[in-house]
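for ur thesis appendix - LysR family transcriptional regulator. copy paste whatever u need, i formatted it the way the template wanted (i think)
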Amino acid sequence: MSYQLELRHYRYFMAVAEALHYRKAAERLFISQPGLSRQIKQMEEILGTQLFIRDKKKVQLTPAGDYLKKELEAALSHLEHTTKQVKLIGKGQLGEIRIGFLGSAMQEVIPSMLLQLKETYPEIHTSLEELSNKAQVNAILKNQLDIGFVRLSRIPRGLRIKPVFEDTFSLVLPKNHALNPSNFKGIEQLFEADFILFSQDYSPLYYDTVISICEDAGFKPQISHKSVHAQTIFKLVENGLGISIVPTALQHGFQLNVKFIELAKIKQRAVLSVLWKDDHHNLALKHCLDLLFDS
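the 3d part is after this line
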């Protein structure tokens, strides 16, 4: 009897590839473990190659299985999103835009964009997820996001990036700190301070830029704490555990005992860019990009 690969084979394969455990994968799929094993074996026979190495202790992907998993992540995500888009369009909607963002984008760019979308294209659905730069890139490549708001200088092939907002940096100090806008001369006055920064993994460009700000002032900063949330950074500053340098837009919306001194005279700027897949076919995303770049 000849068989052909069907969508169910790929879904069964991904469940095992993600769990690396047949029983857990079968429970997730609501099928029996022997039935799942038969499906995977059938898939391997059709492909003529082994996808898993299985013994009594563990399940591992073969090189072929690992390659298939990586390729299917994007393909199945795209298929799932396409199905959702078709249902929305069938109901008279324009589809959905899945948006990734850094926290600082929520201060200026995203609220304005969402309001414009609501006014101009009320039929477009939106979803938001706060993620690091790297996580946004990976999600867009895997078709899990349509658009991202990032601080990046380099991107993988297949993606497009365009600046949408340029901001200054500001120094963040405890409310009772001796420095203020009238006696502040330069960041070199704080060469002995402990710095609290956004994690390098969360935003490498931001991290490197802050380091360059300090190096231009003649010192290398002592970094005592790192975080991925502005609220955490400001709370640590408030409690006297260090100081920080952040994009100026982040000073809005936090009710904490910290103060900001804008570093308007330095050359560095905090550039926020929009990121999307070059070969997208999402009409709702096209409308969103048009609004961003025409505004």
